[in-house]
User: Which sequence fits this backbone?
């Protein structure tokens, strides 16, 4: 599949889970394809990084389900901050562990999972739909974290085979497999599509964290997580991320940055990135 | 060797928060807490577990901003971090934008939740951390704007809000220390209000009171925070922070 094929199967108003964590292994080529599309009114579930800022700035997001949005080496994303501070998006803010429980509940088809996380905090104050559950064996009252059912999941992995068995080669799988399992349809982009036997030739089978039974389609997207990290294939492009943040802070510069990098195709984006001299400023 | 400066005293005060913790995951957020945990593990608290900031628990003592050289002793991807949080074998030191007398802490946003004046990180793991395992806080710039009578929203749960939420929230809650650039604090066990534990060398109690937006519990005798030993100073200056990253949080 291509990024455009995936976007063609998504609909306005869908709930979409985006894999990765902060500015790490984000399915950025799929995010960029959504930026170019007519999709709007999305509910986005994410361990948020620049995916969230970009989608908010492009007016694609109706509601964000999140525990944080961060660029890791730069703590805050200016585009996300602007969307919040201008009241442009709704949010459901949960403890980051609660997001995992919500995805796991959806993945295992139970309506909720009990947790202490969130008790006494803004999570309860600002999520009026959140309910409590009494321990039937003891009597303590816990939060019933509702299942976070996704219409679609978008994740980026290091390797995959044509059938959708997908592998992480970096230190952390993040929650990408849970995102896929919580979704009706899951789309996996990857640095490289390889024959199945290659997957376990290079690394222990435990790294093939996502099984094809969870996956709807595979997209080969070399450098597809750029500018977020995708180790060991490549690290975060810190210079590009700095340029993103600097441009995002000023409407005039943001328009120029968008024209230069985001308005063309994914191939145009990759060409524009490749044309940057190393150690260069992108804006 | 020159005498310890304020940033180095803060390292020691943060390190002392982990004394006696034993075999748990120490989770420092911020530069000085990170230096402090490495120092504590290298010296008086050798059984602590620390991560490389990604997904590995590593041994050894290495400089902030550099890659650890010690052996990887275990794998700890984010989902396992949550398991450790919920099991309770962890002590986090977070940096709040606001904190009140009962230990409610805000890292999420300033202003209203619907439309914040300033959006910050989001709650992250603060709600779960604060009701599941020991929690401390580090405030690099002590001011009334941070030590505030009421936080705009509760990310880290304080004693009063945990009591209101019920036994599931109080059972494992343990707010442990606050360290600022001026002083160290714990919580008075009776009133659950923040209590002055020690003032850093060169700081007097009045300065702390003036910079705090609520009434502190102040004992009759307030000791002075201990100074680093020669060995600790060498460790900070030569091994853990040779490039002076600590001065980004507490200027010399």
Assistant:
């Amino acid at each position: 599949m291509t990024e455009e094929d995936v976007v063609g199967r998504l609909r306005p108003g869908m709930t979409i889970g985006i894999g990765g964590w902060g500015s790490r292994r984000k399915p950025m080529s799929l995010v960029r394809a959504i930026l170019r599309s007519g999709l709007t009114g999305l509910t986005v579930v994410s361990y948020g990084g620049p995916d969230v800022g970009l989608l908010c700035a492009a007016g694609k997001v109706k509601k964000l389900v999140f525990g944080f949005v961060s660029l890791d080496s730069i703590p805050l994303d200016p585009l996300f901050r602007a969307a919040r501070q201008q009241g442009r998006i709704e949010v459901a803010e949960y403890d980051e562990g609660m997001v995992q429980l919500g995805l796991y509940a959806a993945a295992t088809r139970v309506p909720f999972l009990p947790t202490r996380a969130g008790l006494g905090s803004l999570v309860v104050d600002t999520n009026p739909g959140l309910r409590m559950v009494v321990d039937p064996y003891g009597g303590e009252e816990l939060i019933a974290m509702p299942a976070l059912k996704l219409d679609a999941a978008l994740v980026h992995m290091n390797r995959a085979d044509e059938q959708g068995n997908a592998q992480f080669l970096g230190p952390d799988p993040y929650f990408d497999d849970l995102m896929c399992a919580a979704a009706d349809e899951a789309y996996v982009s990857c640095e490289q599509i390889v024959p199945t036997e290659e997957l376990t030739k290079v690394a222990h089978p435990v790294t093939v964290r996502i099984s094809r039974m969870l996956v709807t389609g595979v997209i080969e997207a070399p450098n597809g997580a750029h500018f977020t990290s995708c180790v060991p294939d490549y690290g975060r492009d810190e210079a590009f991320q700095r340029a993103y943040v600097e441009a995002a802070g000023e409407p005039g510069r943001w328009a120029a940055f968008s024209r230069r990098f985001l308005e063309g195709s994914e191939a145009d984006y990759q060409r524009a990135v490749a044309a940057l001299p190393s150690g260069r400023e992108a804006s | 060797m020159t005498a310890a400066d304020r940033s180095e005293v803060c390292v020691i005060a943060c390190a002392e928060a982990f004394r006696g913790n034993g075999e748990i995951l120490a989770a420092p957020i911020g530069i000085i807490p990170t230096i402090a945990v490495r120092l504590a593990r290298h010296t008086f608290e050798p059984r602590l577990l620390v991560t490389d900031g990604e997904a590995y628990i590593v041994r050894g003592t290495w400089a902030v901003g550099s890659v650890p050289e010690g052996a990887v002793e275990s794998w700890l991807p984010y989902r396992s971090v949550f398991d450790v949080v919920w099991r309770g074998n962890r002590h986090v030191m977070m940096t709040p934008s606001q904190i009140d007398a009962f230990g409610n802490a805000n890292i999420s946003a300033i202003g209203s939740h619907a439309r914040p004046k300033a959006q910050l990180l989001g709650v992250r793991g603060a709600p779960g951390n604060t009701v599941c395992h020991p929690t401390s806080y580090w405030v690099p710039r002590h001011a009334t704007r941070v030590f505030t009578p009421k936080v705009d929203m509760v990310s880290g749960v304080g004693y009063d809000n945990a009591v209101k939420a019920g036994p599931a929230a109080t059972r494992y809650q343990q707010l442990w220390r606050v360290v600022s650039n001026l002083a160290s604090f714990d919580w008075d066990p009776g009133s659950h209000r923040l209590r002055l534990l020690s003032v850093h060398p060169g700081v007097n109690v009045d300065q702390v009171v003036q910079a705090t937006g609520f009434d502190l519990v102040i004992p009759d005798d307030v000791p002075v925070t201990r100074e680093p030993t020669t060995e600790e100073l060498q460790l900070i200056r030569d091994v853990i922070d040779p490039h002076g990253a600590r001065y980004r949080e507490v200027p010399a």
Notes: Chain A touches chain B at residues 21, 47-48, 66-70, 75-76, 80-81, 84-87, 91, 93-98, 100, 115-126, 135, 140-142, 171-175 (CB under 8 Å). The CA atoms of residues 23 and 50 of chain A lie 6 Å apart. Chain A has two domains: 3-96+148-199+207-240, 114-146.
